[in-house]
Amino acid sequence: MEEALGTDKKTDPTARLRLGDLLVHRGLITPQALQDALKAQRGTGKRLGEVLVDRGALTEVELTPLLAQHLKLTYIDVLNRHRRVSTTARSPRPQIYGPAAAQ
What pLDDT, in 10s, does the model give residues 64-83? Predict the structure, then answer.
């Protein structure tokens, strides 16, 4: 399943990208939006994802599954009860629940 989601380091060229570069690669933000957010981030001390969401470059719903994948965490959309990102590790992994759960 990881290979289908593009999370296998051996076959996925995006596995080593930084979060901002991954967001650009996936087409979720533009290169200019990334550069603007990085500049804004320096003055705020916020995390890149927070800055991008605050600036309206993407939504939490768009960011959360990708961030979970990037951090190798399991993402479960609790409203749809659909596992979006899976790991093959045998030990339990932390899980991130989608922002839709708070609604």
Answer: 999 998 888 988 888 776 55
CA atoms within 13 A on the CB side of 82: 5
User: What pLDDT, in 10s, does the model give residues 21-63?
Assistant: 999 999 999 999 999 999 999 988 899 999 999 999 999 999 9
Which residues lie closer than 8 Å to 102 by C-beta, 6 or more apart?
A: none
Fill in the amino acid letter for 77. D
Q: How far apart are CA 87 and CA 74, in angstroms?
A: 7
Round to whole Å and give the CA distance between 45 and 30: 22
What is the Cα–Cα distance from 102 to 87, expressed in whole angstroms?
24
